[in-house]
Amino acid sequence: MKKSTKKEASLVLQEKIKQIILERQLQVGDLMPTESELIELLDVSRSSLREAIKSLEALHILDIKHGIGTFVGESSLTPMIRSLAFHAQLSLHNNCQYLLNILDIREILQYGFASLVLAKISDSEVEALQQLAKQLQKKARIEQYSLELEKEIHLLSYQCINNPLLLQYLDAFWQIFQRLELQLPLSHYSPTMLAILYQEWVDAVESRDVDRFQHSILSYFHQIRQRLTIKEIKE
To answer: What is the dihedral of CA 197, 183, 229, 152, to 10 degrees?
Structure first.
């Protein structure tokens, strides 16, 4: 069997396995049919089945627990993160356009959900955001900055929407940028300037002012975009 034909056959088999999950209405964490049952049901060889299952595990559709069984996996953007991060890193040799494209999607999501954030965020969540902003200010006074605190502000701001998929996407975008951080041009914004930007962000949330909050979001993405449009990429 030619290599391309073998790959196509494996993809077809993967689709058949996914169809079994759907037809049997299996849910995340449910035990899959045994290997022997799948071989008989799908009329395939053991090696072909195992190859297809390993591929589905890599996509987090299945979860293999050795000695126990194979289960329906939890929703995960890990495969997407790995692919996007690789291609973003690959594109850095020429320009940052691929990373800018990812940034555009993230900006649209955060800007678009801004009004819903202000409608749902609680006073306790606002207070937690204020504490994070204060920690950034404290670091800024000694010329330090924390990407982890910045990430926490973003994720906490949108946590109240209770949309797990949105949070997964935002976290995925953060992971991509963090993986490439050392290869990107330095920011023109000092720790103090960034601390001020986030204090305005949090104050806008506290005041429940949609226009002000959306302006803060645009300001954040503007400074990131400025950084990425610098041609001299750190090797």
So the answer is: -30
pTM over 0.85: no
What are the beta bridge partners of residue 70? 64
Given CA atoms 66, 72, 75, 77 in this order, what sign does their dihedral have?
positive
Angle between helix 147-159 and helix 164-180 axes, rounded to 10 deg: 170
Which helix (DSSP H) or strand (DSSP E) does residue 70 occupy? strand 69-72
* Of 164, 105, 153, 103, the residue nearest 129 (C-alpha): 153
Q: To which residue do tokens 């400025």 refer?
A: 226
Whether 230 has a pLDDT exceeding 70, the answer reads no
Backbone angles phi, psi at 35, to 5 degrees: -60, -45
Maximum Cα interatomic distance, the chain, rounded to a whole number of Å: 67
Q: Give yes or no for a contact between 112 and 140, defined as CB atoms under 8 angstroms apart.
A: no
Q: Judge contact between 103 and 228, C-beta under 8 A.
A: yes
